[in-house]
Amino acid sequence: MKGLLQGRVALVTGGSRGIGYAIAAAYVREGAKVVICGRNELHLQEAVARLQVIGDVFPVVCDVSSISQVEEMVQKAIGRYGTVDILVNNAGISMTFGRVGEIDPRLWARVVQVNLVGTFNSCHAVIPKMLSQASGKIINLKGYGANMPSPRVSAYGASKAAVLAFTRTLAREYRGSGITVNCLSPGVVKTELILNREATPEGRPYLEQFSGFIDVLANPAEKAAQLAVRMASSSTDGVSGREFRVMSKTGLALRLIKWSARRLLKG
Ligand SMILES: NC(=O)c1ccc[n+]([C@@H]2O[C@H](COP(=O)([O-])OP(=O)(O)OC[C@H]3O[C@@H](n4cnc5c(N)ncnc54)[C@H](OP(=O)(O)O)[C@@H]3O)[C@@H](O)[C@H]2O)c1
């Protein structure tokens, strides 16, 4: 049986682990040829060894915050598979939990450089090819802070809010061109991004409070991957500038209510 993405070429940034790896694996299973990137070559090779068992994968070492590295990666992807039909801007980093006055400014700028500028870099490099074939799907990973204030992770929240604004803008700019651009909101997923966090002394209790909620809110990365398959498939043709969520606001509220009720009953 043919997969939903048979014959398509996908580029998944940050595909060596976490949500990006789950998306790459789901795409390969659906018949896509997949290029994955990351900075750590060893992690990339480990991911490729697992993915090659199910299909066609090509790793490229690339830091998405560098436009020259991203342009080179896209050229390698096109050289290998002839095109890029699907771009998933998944590579992202979080930050030390802390208020603006106490955070290292270089770290703040780095988060924006990877999450926002990295997303721009890949779009900039891929769009000419997508335009020439009058088709392409771009999926940008949203995150905490895009729709609400994000105290103590201000760079992360600001970068993800900007990714949402950028997605909507891009969707308008390329309306009618065959290129669609949407956001994927994966909810909370237990990955290194949220499990290995540091905090300033002031931020530590807030990080601990947040960590206590992770198990209540977490979804498996595979849920985000299933949604990413649907977003990349022909079932969403023509849909652009939208946000696709793994968990609705109502679903999130219900989970918190159930958790609070259980705690109350336990006394
Ligand atoms: N986990 C969550 O609960 C959650 C919730 C909402 C949104 N998200 C978003 O989902 C995306 C994936 O997060 P995750 O939780 O799967 O993170 P993760 O487990 O830390 O994985 C991040 C991936 O991105 C790569 N990466 C990081 N910086 C990079 C750079 N500068 N250039 C290229 N690759 C880079 C990493 O590889 P290297 O380190 O080798 O470069 C790795 O493959 C992020 O955009 C994140 O903001 C996550």
Structure commentary:
The protein is an alpha/beta fold and 267 residues long. The protein has a single domain (9-266), classed as NAD(P)-binding Rossmann-like Domain (Rossmann fold, 3-Layer(aba) Sandwich). 50% of the residues lie in helices and 13% in strands. It is built from nine helices and seven strands; from the N terminus they run E-H-E-H-E-H-E-H-E-H-E-H-H-H-E-H. A seven-stranded parallel beta sheet has the order 3-2-1-4-5-6-7, sandwiched between helices. Helix 4 (105-132) links the parallel strand 4 (86-89) and strand 5 (136-141). The chain is globular. The structure holds NADP nicotinamide-adenine-dinucleotide phosphate. NADP nicotinamide-adenine-dinucleotide phosphate binds at residues 13-14, 16-20, 37-40, 43, 62-65, 90-93, 114, 118, 141, 143-144, 186, 188-189, 191-194.
CATH 4th-level superfamily = NAD(P)-binding Rossmann-like Domain
Would you tell me the overall average pLDDT? 95
Strand order of the largest sheet: 3-2-1-4-5-6-7
The poorly predicted ranges are none
How does the overall form come out from the CA principal axes? globular
Strand content: 5-15%
Which architecture does the CATH hierarchy give at level 2?
A: 3-Layer(aba) Sandwich
The structural domain count equals 1
Q: Please summarize the sheet with the most strands.
A: 7 strands, parallel
DSSP strand count: 7
Task: State the helicity in percent bands.
Answer: 40-55%
Q: So how many helices?
A: 9
